[in-house]
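Suppose you are handed only these lines of text.
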Amino acid sequence: MPAVEVKKLTKRFVSGGGSVVDAVKNLNFSVNEGELFTLLGPSGCGKTTTLRALAGFEDITEGQIKLFGDVVSTSDLNVPPERRGIGFVFQSYAVWPHMTARENILYALKNQDYPKDRREDRVQEALSLVGLAGGNVEDRYPSELSGGQQQRVAFARAISYEPKLLLMDEPLSNLDFQLRKRMRQSILDILDEIKVTTVYVTHDQEEAFEISDDICVMKDGVKMQQGDPEALYDSPNSPFVANFIGEANVFNAELVSKTKKSANATITKGDQKLDMVCRHEGKSDLKNPVIVIRPERIHIEVASKAGKGSKYNKTSETNEYAGKITHKIFRGASVYYDVTIGDNTTVQVRSTQSKLKVGQNLKVTIAKQDALIVQGAS
Ligand SMILES: Nc1ncnc2c1ncn2[C@@H]1O[C@H](COP(=O)(O)OP(=O)(O)O)[C@@H](O)[C@H]1O
Ligand SMILES: [Mg+2]
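From them, the structure of the protein bound to adenosine-5'-diphosphate can be written out as follows.
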């Protein structure tokens, strides 16, 4: 039995002025017990709305939510948050300003009917879990704590009463970069220790990749793709996911032929054409096909004399082209080269070779495996 089952969830907001927004549309996903599941997508795509529906803060328009086998939300049922066994961490921390850190946690324990004789000990355990034990943080008011400390208090409060499900809405987005990186690791360590099923919301792909077992990518209230970080990176199913997750060269193409695992396609620009053999994941019929190539998967080497200006081999497994560097950006650990292949197709290449120069002739190799062809906008 999954810990969370969301089926055909739709949430429609009708504002006072009568305007209608479908913040979440027909969303399906499930989360296994102990898993860290992430809703990832740009601002406004419906992440917070979904999380609030899971918590019981929003009633839902259509569909169903089950937590640990029990139906908790339908269009005419909304089990209140305090009866769902959830902990919630908000983006804004939302610690109560008129209570000390200790009182914040104690109040939550009381609210959740945590055994009375265990509450004081549990406050200390929770503070210690989030690294705030000692140093008299517990007796300070939120205004006397840094942002990072407030977020730790909010986290301690959410896990103090041992919820079955933890919901976290962009908990790190108000922290500075260094702190964010450290907190990610803390969150992972703590979740590893308490092993609570977690649904995590972020718009930050790197954060999602670092912490998640499974990721649901959303756009405009709709699930675009779900998978583990590697699957999403290696096999995005759309130009949107390819661009949102990491960097990608994206080309509109014309399909020449396809089998279950490969396709031949032509990148067309004006009257210039460039043929490419591509990896095809098989399910899509490739209407309006788009070729997606990660910049670091394009192999470049200085053109040999023999190869200079001539056509290279194209096999059923690799594409080889003559290329020329037209632009270079140095970024320390890697260098980005714009390389023109064919007559006027420019690919961005990320390389560790830093010494190549604009104007340099290259041999450019793109394995079939690394030229993924997907369905574009229908
Ligand atoms: N209470 C509300 N009333 C009307 N529209 C809302 C409300 N809450 C969210 N929305 C709209 O629903 C969409 C999704 O919002 P939200 O779930 O907050 O997105 P995210 O968390 O991904 O940024 C947005 O268009 C937003 O303006
Ligand atoms: Mg949000």
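What can we learn from it? The two ends are 36 Å apart (CA to CA). The chain has a mean pLDDT of 92.
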